[in-house]
Structure formats: structure tokens, C-alpha cells
Amino acid sequence: MLELFEKFAQRHQAWRQPLLLALVMSGAVFFGIVTLASSANLDNWLIPSILLVLWLLQFYSGLNLFAVVPPRADPRQAWKLRIKRKAHRFCYHLFAWFMLLVTIAWAVTSLQLIAAWLRIA
Predict the structure, then answer these.
(1) Domain locations along the chain
(2) pTM
């Protein structure tokens, strides 16, 4: 699974800058909606702006986190280096599982928020 995330992140590195720009712009729109909008407009646009900001943040952090994953430990290396490499990769495995679980939870929450937003709108 770790290699799958690494391949995905490496293939989509060209999207890092546009994602960052979109994240900053959507964060500014979210801040503007929260601070400047009337309560009627706030009800209409708060949920979509939250969804956009958090999904962009999820994708951007995934691309940055898994862009460079440490390679597997080589059996010819010293045991200290092998242990260090395995521990480092273990942390990346934990990050990968956490990212997968967060994505699933966020997808379910997004569907619920979209359903609530459609009832409001």
C-alpha cells in the first residue's frame, strides 16, 4: 500500500502548486464567508466551502507526505541502518493507514454534509 501511495504522489507532483493555490484561495473564500457574509448566505455557502478546503488540504498533504518514501532496508546494510530504515518506513505505513482511514471517514462525512446542504438550499 505504501508503494501505491508513493506512485500516486510522484505521478501527481505537477498538481502541488495548483493545489496549494486553490487551497489558499478557498481558505480565503471560507474566511470571507465566515466573517463577512450575512446569516442567510452563511447558511448557503458554509458547508461547500468547508468541504472544498478540507478535501484540498487532504490531497495536498497526501502529495507532500508520500512524495519521497524511504526505500526498503537492504540486507547488506549494517543492522543499525536496517532498524532505522524499517522504523522510518513503519512510520510511513502508519501515515498511509491513517490517511486511508481519514479519507474514508471524510468521504462519509462529506456525503452527510452534502445531504444536509441540499436540504437547506
Answers:
(1) 2-120
(2) 0.85
